[in-house]
Design brief:
Blueprint lengths: L1 H17 L6 E7 L4 E2 L6 E6 L6 E12 L6 E9 L6 E9 L10 E3 L2 E13 L4 E9 L6 E2 L1 E13 L2
Antiparallel strand pairs: 1-11, 2-10, 3-9, 4-8, 4-11, 5-6, 5-9, 7-8
Pfam families: GldH_lipo (PF14109)
Protein name: Gliding motility lipoprotein GldH
Keywords: Lipoprotein
Length: 162
């Protein structure tokens, strides 16, 4: 009887996990190969927006993880956004400040590794359901860009649409 209960509970959990959930938070981070970010490495992130997700506002962040040896106080990115059922991508150049004018890192640090979560768009709207694709390209003068370990995308629910 106990075994039957465990199997039934497991199947219920599996069924619940297969049902799409409304998005409250999306987060994915990708490793930069060799911690040297080249122009041609353009990590991408696909976010599935359900019809009920279009009723909300979202804050969009870029996550950056680097070592203390990173030589700049910022990083410039080209952020591409491809909308559902669209072959054209909208591109925006974004600056991510990583340190203050004295060189002190803004992010959280452990030993010689620093992590930043930088807001790039506040109260964004996803007007139609479907898959949105975000692409990041480093847009600094140095290629490859050294000591960048990870880059990521985080999207948080910021409330209901007005």
């Amino acid at each position: 009887m106990k075994r039957l209960f465990q199997v039934t509970a497991g199947l219920l959990l599996l069924a619940a996990a297969c049902k799409p959930l409304k998005m409250d938070v999306y987060e994915k981070n990708l490793e930069i190969p060799g911690h040297n970010w080249t122009y041609d490495y353009q990590p991408s992130f696909e976010v599935n927006i359900l019809p009920e997700d279009t009723a909300n506002l979202y804050d969009i962040y870029v996550n950056v993880r680097h070592t203390d040896a990173y030589p700049y106080s910022n990083i410039w990115l080209l952020v591409g956004t491809r909308y559902p059922n669209d072959s054209i991508s909208k591109e925006q150049r974004v600056e991510l400040p990583l340190a203050d004018i004295n060189g002190k890192w803004h992010g959280n640090g452990i030993d010689d590794i620093y992590e930043h979560r930088v807001l790039i768009q506040q109260k964004a709207l996803f007007n139609k359901p479907g898959t949105y694709k975000f692409t990041f390209e480093q847009n600094m003068r140095q290629n490859p860009l050294p000591h960048v370990m990870n880059i990521g995308l985080r999207i948080e629910k910021a409330g209901k649409r007005p």
